[in-house]
Each structure stands twice: as structure tokens, then as C-alpha cells.
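@channel sequence for tomorrow's demo:
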Amino acid sequence: MSGIAITTPFAPLALLAGLLLLFGKIWPSRPGLIATIGCTILYYLQWRISQTIPWGSGARALCWPLICLFVEVAALFDGAILLAILARPRDRSAEADRGEARLRRAWDENAASLPPVDVFIATYNEPREVLEKTILGCLSLEWPDARVWVLDDGRRPWVRDLCVAKGAGYVNRPDNKGAKAGNINHGLTVTQAPFVAVFDADFVPRRDFLLRTMGFFDEERIGIVQVPHSFYNHDPMQTNLGLQQTMPDDQRFFFEAIMPGRDGWDAAFCCGSNSVTRRTLFESIGGGLPEGSITEDMLLTMASLRQGYVTRYLNEPLAFGLAPESTAAFFVQRQRWAQGAIQILYLKQGPLGPGLKLRHRLLFLPSAWITQGLQSVFMVLTPILFMLFNLAPMTGIDLQSVIHYVLPLIVAMMSGITLLAPGRYYPLAAQILSMFQTFRILPVALQTLFKPKGLVFKVTPKGSDAGGSPWESTILCGALLLIGVSFAGLMINASADRHIVSQMGLMPMVALWTMLNMFMLLLVAMMCLEKPRVRGEERFALRQGVTLLGSDGQMIRSDRGDISISGLGLEMDEPTDLRVGDRVEMVVPDVGLLRGFVRRAGRRIGVEFDFHSEEVRDRLIISLFTGSIEVNAHRPSASAAALAVVRRLWAADLSIAQGVPRLPDAAPVQEKLSAQTRIIAPSGLSDRLRGPLDWQEAPLSATA
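C-alpha cells (generated this afternoon):
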């Protein structure tokens, strides 16, 4: 090897391990971890630039190594921004506690002293089973004057009727100009409360959402308060790889590590749902959300920064919604995010426009959508091109230099970020997801980079509309092709007579690299096989005991089991006398009397609800969705999550969902209201739903 002579190749790796152990476990220090990772990056780059590029060679010899170097440097630039973000996390829960205490005291003394809040539910084509949960959740908010408005851009008669029946206000407009941003802006023109909470049609707020967030507005410079997007179902990666009980959803790293870090730099941003905004902020930037991008939420934050307002982030799960329920829905959502993020580069209100501080320009750069994709592409293609065409990404490299320079960088980035975001960042799962996304998102991001105009806002399909193909054929075929080509490269170069690679001393490292890629591509292929969603409604663990009464007077009580809108499952120590088809009654805390039919007997009793009134069903929805939800609450270690991923190959379920409908090419024709503005004022949640149960109206009996 030319250049620096290496006498102790393991020394940097040993030093790095010691520093990570010191600053990560023995003497926890976030600055120490970041300094360690930063020094490792600089040490690697000085070697990479000075020793591995054939600077004295011609353009042909320089081309491929320089392309690879450019991708690495771009990825490390985004990595440096990530480290800066993780350097200053903020926990605002103590502030929220103090704010809630002040608000409750003010409410007790004089409810009229608390400002009115308009609560917007923006909807376009979501089905009833999704929308009604959000309407009831918003109507249940603990606040003396919360005015719930459903902004229906689909102009659907049944939505209007649902709003009237439940007590929510209803607003529609004659056109769909500006998509979601235009819908919210129209809602702002017909309402007047000084604060506006916004929820997507699938996000159900906890009852204390406003009490936990409104206290931050005591500080005049706070323009927006944002809380995480939490989910009561599992995303496609969890479902298709069977990791529901071993890993949280893929957005926990963003919402529980990145966003608190951005908050430390006053660079948290509105995420489109689960936020509260001052109306004066809207007025200061022209009267509403900017409509120049399909990611109007991020643009709103940058516009507010220019007016001196700050977005505050409260890292508490105060609203729960639906994660994408199929790979098709997943890519509709992520492609929209990527397109919108790249699109804002070209807008005056974007990160390159006037009026922003340098740190905000850097933190709002959307380059990660491209660099992460390129990193995944080059991670897979580089060893393939080396084995099949003898194209080396760098020169003057051997096993010692890999151990001395390359391995410390990999360990520093993966282990360091894991220590900075424990229980939120899972390196192996992150690499697999990035590889999976790259097939579909990188082309869209690159296309938007060169053609940013004319993008169409696509709503993420939810509920019964979220079906897709039983498999993601494009990614599946691509992953299998890359596995085949990688295997061919290994086989060709395994022969002393037919090998293509001139530097055979590098083949053991390249073979290890290639096998790791093949392993991840196999898991990517498994993610492409859509697993069936066997239940129409999500089930939640029982929080309190349930009493069940059979038609013969048999009384059963259990606090073990689960419950959904459609039914109840109870775990019993011993089999009961109940039989399939028996009619039973149940007393569920906070809900009241429910009736149903036994669908499963034995130690596991399954009951299908038979609602005797809409009010009882509404009570159940409010009870299930407006309290604490424990789905996706587990936070395993990075090693435990990696082990769970590896085990999936040994226990792979290669079956696919049967009968999953494809997304229709065109939305089915539905009855629409005429193209004009309609405003129906909210009447509020029925006192029977908001107040305590009147047990005299729901007697426990043994009647069939």
C-alpha cells in the first residue's frame, strides 16, 4: 500500500471502541460521542481523498473513483447534519406539565379565560370507518371552547350527515384548488378562533391534547406546537417481516430522536397533522398555508421562522393515526414527501430563499432524500461492478487499510448514532428499509430535482381504500435480479481460471460485503410480499377488567384479553360453559353495557358486538382511541432488533395476501354535493357521551 504505513491496523478501531464505551456507557456524554464520530469521519476523509484517488491518472481512470467519492462525501455531509441535530435534544414534558397545571387552574376559576380553538379535520376521500374515529376524538377534547370543523374537500353527502349527527361543524368549498393547503386556507376564512389545531382524517387526539399543548403559547414567539405522529397499527415493514412485537414502526427515529434534536435548534417543523398554530402566524404570512409545494407543512414552518415565530416540539404521543396499511399506500406517502421536500428548493420561501439563518438553511436542506438513495444504490452496485468489470471504487487499498480506516467509520456511524438515539435507531433495519425505498423513491426524487413543477398532491389511501397488489413486483424483481447478479459475480471470481478481478487479495472482503448485500436484498424481497390483514379493526389490550354475563346468568370477569370496535377477546384460566352462538352482555368501563354473540368458546372467549345503539358504539370508540395506546410502544435494543430481523430468514413466511384488492386506476364515482361553499356550525358532543354513564339507563340483566 502506498502512502501511510500501517503498523497497527486495529489501533483506531480499538481506540474508537474505547471512546464509544466511555462516552456511551461509563461516562455518558453526548458531546463526547459526537466529537468521537466527527474525528473518525475526518480521519477517514483525509485518507480517502489523499490516498485512494488516482489523481495523477487520466480522466478515464479518475471517473469512477471520483463518482464513488462524491456519493460518500454527500452521505457524510448529511451524516454531519444528523449529528448536529442529535447534539441538542430537548424534552418539553416538564414545560407541558406546568402549562397544563396553569390551564386547569384557569379553567376552574373562569373557563371563559381560555381562548377558543378551531379544530380542523382535513379530509378528501377517507372512508367512514377512518373519519368517524377522528371526529369523535376531536369532539371529546378537554377544552371549554373547542370548535370541531370537518373540512370536506370531497363534498360527500354522507360526511355532511355524519358531522350533523355527531355534532361537528361541516365546511366544503366549490373547488379543490391548492389541495390540502387550499382546503385548510378556506377553513381559515370561515372560522375565527385565535388558535387552530389541525388533524389528518385518520389521527385521533387524546382527550388532553389541547391541555398539553396550549400552555406553550404563553410565550409569544411560539407560533406552532407539534407532537409526534404515533400509530395504532403496524407499518408494512413490521407486518410483512413479522416484526410487530419486536420492533417499533420506522418513524420512531424521526419523531423521537430527530425532531427533539431539531427543537434544540429551533428548527422543528409542522408535520401536517397533530399541531396547533396561532392564527396571527397565518395572518403574518398572507392569511394561510403556503400553496407552492405539496409539503405545505414544512413550508409553513420556514415562512413562520422568517416572521420570528418558532415551532415547538412536544415529544409525547398525544394523537394516534394509521401508518400506511400496504406497500402501495406506503409509497404514495413517501413519494409525496420526497417530491415536496425537493420541490421547496426552488421556492422563495424554501431553505435557499432570503431571510433564514444559516443553521436553518442547513437543517431544512432535503438532500437526504437523494443521498440516502444513492448510498443504497452504490452499496449494492459497487461490489457487483468490481466483480464483473474490475471497476474499483478506490485504489491503493488492502485488508489493513480497510481495518484501519473503513471499519472505524462504519462502526462510528452505526454504533454512535445508536448510542445517541437508543431504542429509536436500528442500523440493520434502517439499511433494509432504505434499500427497499430506494427502488421507488430515488427515481422520483431525481425527477423532481430536474422537474419540480406540476406535481399533484396524492392522498395516502387509508382504511378500506388502502389495499394494494399482493406483491410489490417492481422491487421484488429488482431485488431478486441483484441477488442473482451478485451470486454470479462471486461464482465467476471463485475460479482461478475465470476470475475477472485483478486484485484477488480484496475478494474475501468483497465477498463478505456482497453476502451482506444479498442478505439484505432477501429481506427486501420478503417485504414485497404483502401479508394479509386478517382483522378489519385494530385490537387493543384491555386496560381494565370486563364483566361478561351469559343468558343463563353465568357471570365471568377477566382483565386479560383484547378489544376492538367489532369485538372482544377474553383469556380465561378455565374453560367456561359458554357456547358459540350464545348471546351475552358485557359491562366495559367507560363504555357501559354492550351486547354480542359468542364466536369462540373455551379458554379464549371471542365475542362479536351487536350494538343496540349508535351512542354505545360512539362511547366505545372514544374509550379505545382517546386514551393511552400501547401499540408500537416497545423499544428493544439495536442488537435485539437485529437478531429479530436475522431470524426472519429462518422462519420466513413467503405466503402473500389473498384477495387483497388492487388500488383502482380511478376512484369510483360517488355522489357529490354541488360545487358551492357550505358551512354547518358545530353543535358539540352530546353530554351523554361526554359525561359519566347513567347506569339506570343501562341495567345489567340476563335477558337474551
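heads up for whoever presents: The chain has 22 helices and 19 strands.
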